[in-house]
């Protein structure tokens, strides 16, 4: 039994005495505990691939920030690596794939990964974390949406345009779908294994959703996200598609419990468009945390007002930036805890 199940109750649309709060990328460089541990290691991948260390980092923000959920410390790019495409994580530059997907032969050699065989270190990290948390808060599992994974596998690195990946959608759509089907099959098996290992809720990150036009998003992304949601009936699923404001009405028809909003979206407009059947998550601008304590508090209160007192999970509109002052993160969290009960009573 969970001692704090606010997040799960909010995701299911049940009454909560206050709004639950956590942050994307909460386990990371904003915490001195994390920086101290990273300094002892060869790099990011050693941390991700060592279950005991990944579990330690996962729990750090629960201890230091008192958030209402832990999210397993991993990376969306473990999926393409499990499929046979190795990545490197370069300090200050981000991910790099020395080889990329270009041809039908490249796609053919990608395997549908077996979770225990190829991603067992993540599953073990979940099991270790669950034991260490001992029911304090829920544990969030996650994976990247198939389109976002394809974008990295074809492009080879982060990009402002992902023009190589997007070119494939125009010039060889069948090859793109073949790769997307393999990614989707791997992701479904992986997320199901995360749930079996102890994840209480799943989030699907479509980080590069917003660079696609709506017709391509429907064809090459949302249909595969829907398939993933349908394959996870036993836990709440959150869909977070950064920049894809046009897809939110479609997400409202999916078998997901929560829709994540980035900071450019108006939760009042979203609620008016989709009704009250889904929980919304978000969506404070991460840069708001660079302000003074008073500015952070006021921005957080305004966010709570826009979402209203029901069916809301407080978060940022994207991941917390690594140079953010941890004290301001605490102000955000404490403000949600202090003022969301007032919103429920109509006094905010």
UniProtKB/TrEMBL annotation:
One of its GO terms (cellular component) is cytosol. Substrate binds at residues 25-29, 75, 152, 207, 318. Homodimer. It is an enzyme of class 4 (lyase). The record marks 75 as: Transition state stabilizer. It comes from the Bacteria. InterPro entries: UROD/MetE-like_sf, Uroporphyrinogen_deCO2ase_HemE, Uroporphyrinogen_deCOase. This is Uroporphyrinogen decarboxylase. Residues 20-29, 140-156 form the Uroporphyrinogen decarboxylase (URO-D) domain. Keywords: Cytoplasm, Decarboxylase, Lyase, Porphyrin biosynthesis. One of its GO terms (molecular function) is uroporphyrinogen decarboxylase activity. Pathway: Porphyrin-containing compound metabolism; protoporphyrin-IX biosynthesis; coproporphyrinogen-III from 5-aminolevulinate: step 4/4. One of its GO terms (biological process) is protoporphyrinogen IX biosynthetic process. The keyword Protein transport does not apply. It catalyses: uroporphyrinogen III + 4 H(+) = coproporphyrinogen III + 4 CO2. Catalyzes the decarboxylation of four acetate groups of uroporphyrinogen-III to yield coproporphyrinogen-III. Its main location: cytoplasm. The lineage of its organism: Bacteria, Pseudomonadati, Bacteroidota, Cytophagia, Cytophagales.
């Amino acid at each position: 039994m969970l001692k704090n199940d606010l997040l799960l109750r909010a995701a299911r649309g049940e009454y909560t005495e206050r709004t639950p709060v956590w942050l994307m990328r909460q386990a990371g460089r904003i915490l001195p505990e994390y920086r101290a541990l990273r300094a002892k290691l060869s790099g990011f991948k050693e941390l991700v691939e060592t279950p005991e260390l990944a579990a330690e980092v996962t729990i750090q923000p629960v201890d230091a920030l008192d958030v209402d959920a832990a999210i397993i410390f991993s990376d969306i790019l473990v999926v393409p690596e499990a499929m046979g495409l190795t990545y490197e994580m370069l300090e200050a530059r981000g991910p790099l794939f020395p080889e990329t997907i270009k041809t039908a032969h490249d796609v053919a050699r990608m395997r549908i990964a077996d979770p225990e065989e190829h991603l067992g270190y993540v599953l073990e990290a979940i099991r270790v974390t669950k034991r260490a948390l001992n029911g304090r808060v829920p544990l969030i599992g996650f994976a990247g949406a198939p389109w976002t994974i394809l974008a990295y596998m074809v492009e080879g690195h982060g990009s402002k345009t992902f023009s190589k990946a997007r070119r494939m959608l125009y010039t060889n759509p069948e090859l793109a779908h073949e790769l997307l089907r393999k990614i989707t099959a791997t992701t479904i098996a992986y997320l199901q294994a995360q749930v079996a290992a102890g994840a209480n809720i799943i989030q699907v990150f479509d980080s590069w959703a917003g660079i696609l036009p709506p017709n391509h998003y429907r064809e090459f992304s949302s249909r595969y996200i829907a398939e993933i949601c349908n394959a996870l009936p036993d836990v709440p699923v959150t869909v977070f598609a950064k920049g894809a404001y046009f897809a939110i009405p479609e997400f409202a028809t999916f078998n997901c419990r929560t829709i994540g909003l980035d900071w450019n979206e108006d939760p009042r407009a979203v609620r008016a468009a989709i009704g009250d059947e889904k929980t919304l998550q978000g969506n404070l601008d991460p840069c708001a945390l660079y302000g003074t304590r008073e500015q952070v508090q006021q921005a957080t209160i305004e966010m709570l007002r826009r979402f209203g007192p029901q069916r809301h999970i407080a978060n940022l509109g994207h991941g917390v930036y690594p140079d953010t002052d941890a004290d301001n993160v605490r102000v955000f969290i404490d403000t949600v805890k202090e003022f969301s009960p007032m919103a429920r009573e109509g006094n905010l």
